């Protein structure tokens, strides 16, 4: 719990500095592009919140040297492996000129470092035919690099609403920490709690007010640490089912579904940005339904409300993974339930057939509508 407290306090203070002095370095720190298709905010906001999470995690590990709250040497090794992925994302936040391919290479490099520095190599998925191939080290390393880089990028895909990626990450790290404690893995548990604290210190400023964004650096850092901890648990503890990886199924499936939708349904490049992610559709067609849209305060409120839908959806796999981490059948069923729920909800919302239970109460919509100023221009998503 000390790691959680130190991580929260340090990240909270660094985030405060980011918010307080963002205007001083506005050219580099602020998200000035309000018109991109995937944007859903109404004013310029600092997008380097990931710097606070990275610093909060580093401070926590440094503090553990004196408090003996985690295996400091191994924790810093893991942090050093994460650094290439973090720097690749942070460079994009500051310059807006780092290509998706370059960021992917940074994530792959970080994953490769994790394989050899931490011994974090996937050597089983509990499927005999695949496990036979993974027994060969080069195959296992390649598979691990792709899987870790995929999850790293996936967190950036779901980072589209206030509190969405960060709170989902807290839920996943909480599950990882619980399982690590159950199998007496001090390293994984201490790092998971440090990440919960650091992300929590950021969330206070991000949700629901949206005063700072996670940015690519934060999303890549969180995604990499998440993937590495899952790999370490599975690699170091044979009694943990490899299916425990479903704990991070929401961001991973969002990425795979987006690739399928862009490439095979719409015939576009897989890295082409669009406004058809599930969280975007929920925001546009549920949270904003029937309400004029030009008041920034209400826009931010509806942005934040949209995240709650995805938090609940992610629990379909997070909860079973937490308590049935050694039961592949339960984990497989939870994965099937999640995929079914995701596809069903997506199909309903994209076809304007949203189930009535997903709609906000009419009284809430009317109250919000009465309190807004009359719109001066047509509704437009930013």
Helices and strands in order, then pairings?
Layout: H1 2-21, H2 26-29, E1 30-31, E2 45-46, H3 49-67, H4 72-95, H5 100-117, H6 128-134, H7 137-157, H8 164-182, H9 186-206, H10 215-236, H11 249-265, H12 278-287, H13 296-323, H14 328-350, H15 362-371
Helix pairs in contact: 1-3, 1-9, 3-4, 3-9, 3-10, 4-5, 4-10, 5-7, 7-10, 7-11, 8-9, 8-10, 8-13, 9-10, 12-13, 12-14, 13-14
Describe this structure in words.
The chain has one domain. The longest helix is centred in the C-terminal third of the chain and has 28 residues, at 296-323. It contains 15 helices and 2 strands. It is mainly alpha-helical. A two-stranded antiparallel sheet has the order 1-2.
Structure in a nutshell:
By secondary structure, this protein is mainly alpha-helical.
Please give a handful of descriptors for the protein shown.
382 residues, Glycosyl_transferase_4, 15 helices, single chain, transmembrane, two-stranded antiparallel ribbon, metal ion binding, mainly alpha, disordered C terminus, Glycosyl transferase family protein
- End-to-end separation in angstroms reads 40 Å
List low-confidence stretches: 362-382
Estimated radius of gyration: 20 Å
Shape, principal axes of CA atoms: globular
Q: Count the DSSP helices.
A: 15
């Amino acid at each position: 719990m000390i790691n959680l407290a130190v991580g929260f306090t340090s990240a909270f203070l660094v985030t405060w500095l980011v918010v307080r002095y963002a205007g001083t370095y506005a050219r580099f720190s602020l998200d000035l592009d309000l018109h991109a298709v995937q944007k859903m905010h109404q004013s310029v906001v600092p997008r380097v919140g990931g710097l606070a999470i990275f610093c909060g995690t580093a401070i926590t590990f440094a503090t553990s040297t004196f408090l003996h709250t985690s295996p400091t040497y191994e924790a810093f090794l893991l942090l050093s492996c994460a650094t290439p992925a973090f720097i690749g994302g942070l460079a994009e936040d500051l310059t807006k000129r780092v290509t998706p391919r370059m960021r992917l290479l940074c994530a792959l490099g970080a994953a490769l470092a994790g394989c050899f520095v931490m011994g974090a190599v996937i050597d089983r998925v509990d499927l005999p035919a695949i496990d036979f191939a993974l027994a060969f080290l080069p195959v296992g390393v390649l598979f691990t690099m792709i899987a870790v880089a995929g999850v790293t990028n996936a967190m950036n895909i779901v980072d589209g609403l206030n509190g969405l990626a960060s709170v989902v990450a807290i839920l996943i790290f909480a599950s990882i920490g619980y399982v690590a404690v159950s199998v007496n893995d001090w390293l994984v548990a201490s790092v998971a709690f440090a990440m919960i604290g650091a992300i929590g210190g950021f969330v206070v400023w991000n949700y629901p007010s949206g005063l700072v964004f996670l940015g690519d650096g934060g999303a890549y850092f969180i995604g990499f640490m998440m993937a590495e901890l899952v790999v370490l648990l599975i690699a170091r503890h044979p009694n943990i089912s490899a299916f425990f990886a479903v704990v991070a199924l929401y961001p991973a499936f969002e990425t795979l579904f987006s690739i399928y939708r862009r490439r095979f349904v719409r015939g576009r490049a897989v890295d082409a940005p669009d406004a058809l992610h599930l969280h975007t559709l929920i925001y546009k067609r549920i949270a904003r339904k029937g309400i004029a849209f030009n008041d920034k305060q209400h826009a931010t409120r509806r942005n934040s409300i949209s995240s709650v839908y995805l938090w609940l959806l992610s629990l379909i796999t997070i909860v079973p993974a937490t308590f049935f981490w050694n039961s592949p059948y339960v984990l497989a069923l939870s994965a099937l339930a999640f995929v079914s729920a995701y596809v069903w909800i997506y199909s309903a919302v994209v076809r304007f057939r949203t189930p009535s239970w997903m709609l906000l109460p009419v009284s809430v919509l009317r109250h919000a509508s009465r309190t807004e100023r009359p719109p001066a221009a047509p509704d437009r998503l930013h």
